[in-house]
Amino acid sequence: MLCYQDPALAGGGGAKIGHRNPGTHTMNRFRYATSQIAVHWLAAALIVFLLVTGTFVLAEMPNTADKTGNFRMHMILGALAAVLVVVRVLLRRVKPRPPAVVAEKWAHLGHMGLNVLVLLLAMSGVALSLQSGVLAAVLGSAPLPESLDGWTLRKVHGLLTRLLMALVAVHVLAALYHQWVVKDGLLLRMRPGKHQA
Protein backbone atom coordinates (compact mmCIF):
# COMPACT_ATOMS: atom_id res chain seq x y z
CA MET A 1 0.00 0.00 0.00
CA LEU A 2 1.22 3.46 -0.81
CA CYS A 3 0.45 6.75 0.91
CA TYR A 4 1.30 9.81 -1.13
CA GLN A 5 0.65 13.49 -1.61
CA ASP A 6 -1.13 15.01 -4.57
CA PRO A 7 1.78 16.52 -6.58
CA ALA A 8 -0.34 19.59 -7.31
CA LEU A 9 -0.54 20.25 -3.58
CA ALA A 10 2.95 19.13 -2.60
CA GLY A 11 4.41 22.62 -2.88
CA GLY A 12 2.01 23.88 -0.26
CA GLY A 13 2.42 21.08 2.21
CA GLY A 14 0.47 18.55 0.19
CA ALA A 15 -2.60 16.67 1.27
CA LYS A 16 -2.19 13.07 2.23
CA ILE A 17 -4.30 10.92 -0.12
CA GLY A 18 -4.51 7.76 1.96
CA HIS A 19 -3.51 4.18 1.19
CA ARG A 20 -4.00 2.58 -2.17
CA ASN A 21 -3.20 -0.63 -3.96
CA PRO A 22 -2.33 0.67 -7.43
CA GLY A 23 -1.71 -1.54 -10.43
CA THR A 24 1.57 -1.85 -12.31
CA HIS A 25 0.96 1.18 -14.53
CA THR A 26 -0.04 3.37 -11.60
CA MET A 27 2.86 2.13 -9.44
CA ASN A 28 5.28 3.40 -12.10
CA ARG A 29 4.22 6.94 -11.19
CA PHE A 30 5.38 6.41 -7.61
CA ARG A 31 8.83 5.05 -8.43
CA TYR A 32 11.98 6.75 -9.53
CA ALA A 33 13.31 5.96 -13.00
CA THR A 34 15.35 2.77 -13.44
CA SER A 35 18.52 4.79 -14.03
CA GLN A 36 17.99 6.69 -10.76
CA ILE A 37 17.34 3.48 -8.82
CA ALA A 38 20.46 1.82 -10.26
CA VAL A 39 22.69 4.79 -9.44
CA HIS A 40 21.18 5.07 -5.94
CA TRP A 41 21.85 1.46 -4.95
CA LEU A 42 25.26 1.30 -6.63
CA ALA A 43 26.36 4.47 -4.85
CA ALA A 44 24.91 3.24 -1.55
CA ALA A 45 26.75 -0.09 -1.74
CA LEU A 46 29.99 1.64 -2.71
CA ILE A 47 29.76 4.24 0.06
CA VAL A 48 29.04 1.63 2.74
CA PHE A 49 31.95 -0.49 1.48
CA LEU A 50 34.30 2.50 1.59
CA LEU A 51 33.18 3.53 5.07
CA VAL A 52 33.61 0.03 6.51
CA THR A 53 36.90 -0.86 4.82
CA GLY A 54 38.38 2.61 5.28
CA THR A 55 37.57 2.71 9.00
CA PHE A 56 38.16 -0.88 10.05
CA VAL A 57 40.74 -2.12 7.53
CA LEU A 58 42.73 0.66 5.88
CA ALA A 59 43.08 2.84 8.98
CA GLU A 60 44.33 -0.12 11.02
CA MET A 61 47.05 -1.20 8.57
CA PRO A 62 50.64 -0.02 9.06
CA ASN A 63 51.96 2.26 6.32
CA THR A 64 54.14 -0.32 4.62
CA ALA A 65 54.52 -1.09 0.92
CA ASP A 66 51.75 -3.70 1.25
CA LYS A 67 49.26 -0.90 1.96
CA THR A 68 49.87 0.90 -1.33
CA GLY A 69 47.45 -1.29 -3.27
CA ASN A 70 44.76 -0.76 -0.65
CA PHE A 71 45.23 3.01 -0.84
CA ARG A 72 44.99 2.85 -4.62
CA MET A 73 41.71 0.92 -4.52
CA HIS A 74 40.28 3.23 -1.84
CA MET A 75 41.12 6.29 -3.93
CA ILE A 76 39.64 4.85 -7.14
CA LEU A 77 36.42 3.74 -5.45
CA GLY A 78 36.16 7.04 -3.58
CA ALA A 79 36.41 8.96 -6.85
CA LEU A 80 33.78 6.65 -8.38
CA ALA A 81 31.44 7.26 -5.44
CA ALA A 82 31.79 11.02 -5.91
CA VAL A 83 31.04 10.68 -9.64
CA LEU A 84 27.94 8.60 -8.90
CA VAL A 85 26.70 11.25 -6.46
CA VAL A 86 27.08 13.93 -9.15
CA VAL A 87 25.27 11.69 -11.67
CA ARG A 88 22.49 11.10 -9.15
CA VAL A 89 22.03 14.85 -8.62
CA LEU A 90 21.92 15.46 -12.38
CA LEU A 91 19.39 12.67 -12.89
CA ARG A 92 17.12 14.21 -10.27
CA ARG A 93 17.11 17.40 -12.33
CA VAL A 94 16.31 15.81 -15.69
CA LYS A 95 14.03 12.92 -14.69
CA PRO A 96 10.43 13.42 -13.52
CA ARG A 97 10.03 12.89 -9.79
CA PRO A 98 7.32 10.66 -8.33
CA PRO A 99 4.61 12.26 -6.15
CA ALA A 100 5.95 13.46 -2.80
CA VAL A 101 5.47 11.41 0.34
CA VAL A 102 5.05 12.70 3.88
CA ALA A 103 8.19 14.44 5.28
CA GLU A 104 9.55 15.05 1.77
CA LYS A 105 11.26 18.23 2.99
CA TRP A 106 13.24 16.32 5.63
CA ALA A 107 14.12 13.64 3.09
CA HIS A 108 15.43 16.32 0.73
CA LEU A 109 17.64 17.78 3.47
CA GLY A 110 18.91 14.32 4.37
CA HIS A 111 19.78 13.50 0.76
CA MET A 112 21.49 16.85 0.34
CA GLY A 113 23.54 16.21 3.48
CA LEU A 114 24.59 12.77 2.22
CA ASN A 115 25.62 14.17 -1.16
CA VAL A 116 27.60 17.04 0.35
CA LEU A 117 29.42 14.78 2.82
CA VAL A 118 30.42 12.28 0.12
CA LEU A 119 31.81 15.07 -2.06
CA LEU A 120 33.64 16.66 0.88
CA LEU A 121 35.13 13.29 1.79
CA ALA A 122 36.36 12.81 -1.76
CA MET A 123 37.89 16.29 -1.86
CA SER A 124 39.54 15.93 1.54
CA GLY A 125 40.90 12.53 0.49
CA VAL A 126 42.42 13.96 -2.68
CA ALA A 127 43.90 16.91 -0.79
CA LEU A 128 45.33 14.62 1.90
CA SER A 129 46.88 12.26 -0.65
CA LEU A 130 48.54 15.18 -2.43
CA GLN A 131 49.76 16.91 0.72
CA SER A 132 51.02 13.82 2.52
CA GLY A 133 52.68 12.10 -0.42
CA VAL A 134 50.29 9.14 -0.54
CA LEU A 135 49.44 9.85 -4.19
CA ALA A 136 53.14 9.83 -5.09
CA ALA A 137 53.48 6.48 -3.31
CA VAL A 138 50.45 5.06 -5.12
CA LEU A 139 51.96 6.18 -8.44
CA GLY A 140 55.21 4.44 -7.48
CA SER A 141 57.44 7.51 -7.30
CA ALA A 142 57.92 7.57 -3.51
CA PRO A 143 57.44 5.41 -0.40
CA LEU A 144 54.39 5.80 1.79
CA PRO A 145 54.75 8.30 4.64
CA GLU A 146 55.30 6.61 8.00
CA SER A 147 52.03 7.96 9.39
CA LEU A 148 49.15 10.25 8.46
CA ASP A 149 48.05 10.92 12.03
CA GLY A 150 49.77 14.30 12.25
CA TRP A 151 48.03 15.77 9.22
CA THR A 152 45.09 18.10 9.84
CA LEU A 153 43.42 16.85 6.67
CA ARG A 154 43.57 13.32 8.09
CA LYS A 155 41.55 14.51 11.09
CA VAL A 156 39.11 16.31 8.78
CA HIS A 157 38.70 13.17 6.66
CA GLY A 158 38.07 11.11 9.79
CA LEU A 159 35.49 13.58 11.14
CA LEU A 160 33.64 13.65 7.82
CA THR A 161 33.66 9.85 7.80
CA ARG A 162 32.00 9.69 11.21
CA LEU A 163 29.42 12.30 10.21
CA LEU A 164 28.59 10.35 7.04
CA MET A 165 28.28 7.11 9.02
CA ALA A 166 25.82 8.79 11.38
CA LEU A 167 23.76 10.27 8.55
CA VAL A 168 23.68 6.96 6.67
CA ALA A 169 22.39 5.27 9.84
CA VAL A 170 19.67 7.93 10.22
CA HIS A 171 18.76 7.55 6.53
CA VAL A 172 18.36 3.78 6.86
CA LEU A 173 16.37 4.01 10.09
CA ALA A 174 14.08 6.67 8.60
CA ALA A 175 13.43 4.49 5.54
CA LEU A 176 12.61 1.48 7.73
CA TYR A 177 10.38 3.62 9.95
CA HIS A 178 8.41 4.82 6.95
CA GLN A 179 8.13 1.33 5.52
CA TRP A 180 7.15 -0.61 8.66
CA VAL A 181 5.65 1.97 11.06
CA VAL A 182 4.15 4.74 8.93
CA LYS A 183 3.51 2.21 6.13
CA ASP A 184 3.49 4.82 3.39
CA GLY A 185 5.30 2.60 0.88
CA LEU A 186 8.38 4.83 0.81
CA LEU A 187 10.78 2.03 -0.17
CA LEU A 188 8.67 1.23 -3.23
CA ARG A 189 10.05 4.41 -4.78
CA MET A 190 13.51 2.82 -4.93
CA ARG A 191 12.53 -0.81 -5.55
CA PRO A 192 13.75 -2.21 -8.88
CA GLY A 193 10.97 -3.12 -11.27
CA LYS A 194 9.62 -2.67 -14.76
CA HIS A 195 9.15 1.03 -15.27
CA GLN A 196 10.63 3.91 -17.20
CA ALA A 197 14.39 4.05 -17.79
TrEMBL record:
It comes from the Bacteria. SUPFAM superfamilies: Transmembrane di-heme cytochromes. The chain crosses the membrane at residues 37-59, 71-91, 112-139, 159-182. GO terms for molecular function: electron transfer activity; heme binding; metal ion binding. It is a multi-pass membrane protein. Its cofactor is heme b. Keywords: Cell membrane, Electron transport, Heme, Iron, Membrane, Metal-binding, Transmembrane, Transmembrane helix, Transport. GO terms for biological process: respiratory electron transport chain. Residues 31-193 form the Cytochrome b561 bacterial/Ni-hydrogenase domain. InterPro entries: Cyt_b561_bac/Ni-Hgenase, Cytochrome_b561_oxidase, Di-haem_cyt_TM. GO terms for cellular component: plasma membrane. The keyword Transcription does not apply. It is found in: Cell membrane. Belongs to the cytochrome b561 family. This is Cytochrome b. It comes from Hydrogenophaga aromaticivorans.
